[in-house]
Amino acid sequence: MAQNTSMEEFEALLNESFEMDTPNEGSVVKGKVIAIEAGQAIIDVGYKMEGRVELKEFANPGEAPEISVGDEVEVYLRAAENARGEAVISREMARREEAWDRLEKAYADDQRVEGAIFGRVKGGFTVDLGGAVAFLPGSQVDVRPVRDAGPLMGLKQPFQILKMDRRRGNIVVSRRAILEESRAEQRAEVISNLQEGQAVEGVVKNITEYGAFVDLGGVDGLLHVTDMAWRRVNHPSEILSIGETVKVQVIKINKETHRISLGMKQLQEDPWDLVAAKYPLSSVHTGRVTNITDYGAFVELEPGVEGLVHVSEMSWTKKNVHPGKIVSTSQEVEVMVLEIDQAKRRVSLGLKQTMRNPWEVFSETHPEGTVVEGEVKNITEFGLFVGLPGDIDGMVHLSDLSWDERGEDAIQNYRKGDMVQAVVSEVDIDKERISLSIKNVGGDKFAEAVGGVKRGSIITVNVTAIEDGGIEVEYEGMKSFIRRSDLSRDRAEQRPERFSVGDHVDVRVTNVDSKSRRLGLSIKAREIAEEKEAVEQYGSSDSGASLGDILGAALKGDDE
């Protein structure tokens, strides 16, 4: 009885021992290194089960294996026995299982993990996380693109797990997240020590079209191009270079976005403080053209002080010309200060004011009545425009083209480019107008001819033509026409054919029309006037004397 009990207990203990000590395939077991040979470590995993592991499985990437006889290690039991009767074990798989457990816990707790970059693959790098291999995308290596990752290879450093899937064996990590977090902490610390208005030194890290980024010791600030100098800066590279140390002033700090605005000109004296004193109104100065626009040109009076010459203040004579046709960039010009707006930091300048008004000059050198000569620049429906000294024009109205022809007819005799002479009739400086007269060149022949002739005067004319309606006569070169009814007091004598071309005839002036430049003449009026004068002098119609008696007496008196 006692013997049977002992056998049962032994069998139970034996079974328990087998169940307890025999490791399950696919699990991690502990073993002891009993020998190292042929590049392999022989490991006893218990129950006379031994297996071999390549020494490289005990080494970290890029490092020599650290293993020696007697060391206890954990290995992964893939199979209890192979064809040679040895256990199939793996140190690498054991490390991987251990690593995944550790990494899953770190990922759940949002903790950093340590690893080393050991290889390059498409789109990024491979990272050893102590047994598990993770993928590091190229965009997650650094806060800025990395051209050479050589210095980072094999270097143990912290990473942040972005994503992991144990079933698929995928792990994605980021080095950039660690740097940004560290950088954010550093930025916060640096910004906490900065104050608006403070002057600090920094290093120019990058230059763009609109400004430069300056490193203030862990945090970047933007130095905008408009805050680099008081003068106009077309591109930051004109005054800054990458790597240069500059002194700047903190203009503004945004605590939420950690953005810092910097300025250099704020540390310099503002030239506008002295503008009013240095550039009084109407004073003339030399400046440099810095920019040309459709509406004018900007002229730099001194670094930081620019003024605008509006297109209307550029030339006395060129009214509708682009400013670029008058001045060029970098040209030195003389300008006059027209207006200063201190609040808006604007100076209005004039270019034409430094030169005399050409209409004033012309008025002084060519008073009214002066004869000038010029080229016909343009022909319009109301007259001619003639080029004059000083690059200005004068206008000859239709009515001032000819004494003898209608203006519409006389203008047909002129062409652009013709050289003409004209008399200055009027100069209006305010309206910038000059009136000219071609017909007055050589004087007014009509006025000269009839200067002493008045209505009622008796003059002698020369017959130049005989017509049915009367006769054409000439007096001092001026033509007139005597109608048939004015040829005689006697109707029977009102015959044009009784006159001949070349006859000299005494006539009475009945009208002097300066506008139409015509004399009204009449033989009939002269005869009536003579009769009236004879009656008054030698008799009266009431005395009974006949007209023949009176005229006979008058003629006799003339003979005596």
TrEMBL record:
Binds mRNA; thus facilitating recognition of the initiation point. It is needed to translate mRNA with a short Shine-Dalgarno (SD) purine-rich sequence. The keyword Repeat applies. Pfam families: S1. It comes from Pseudooceanicola marinus. Keywords: Repeat, Ribonucleoprotein, Ribosomal protein, RNA-binding. SUPFAM superfamilies: Nucleic acid-binding proteins. It comes from the Bacteria. PROSITE patterns: S1 (PS50126). The gene is rpsA. Belongs to the bacterial ribosomal protein bS1 family. This is 30S ribosomal protein S1. One of its GO terms (biological process) is translation. Residues 26-92, 110-176, 197-265, 282-352, 369-439, 456-524 form the S1 motif domain. CDD domains: S1_RPS1_repeat_ec1_hs1, S1_RPS1_repeat_ec2_hs2, S1_RPS1_repeat_ec3. The lineage of its organism: Bacteria, Pseudomonadati, Pseudomonadota, Alphaproteobacteria, Rhodobacterales. GO terms for cellular component: cytosolic small ribosomal subunit. Signal peptide: none annotated. GO terms for molecular function: mRNA binding; structural constituent of ribosome.
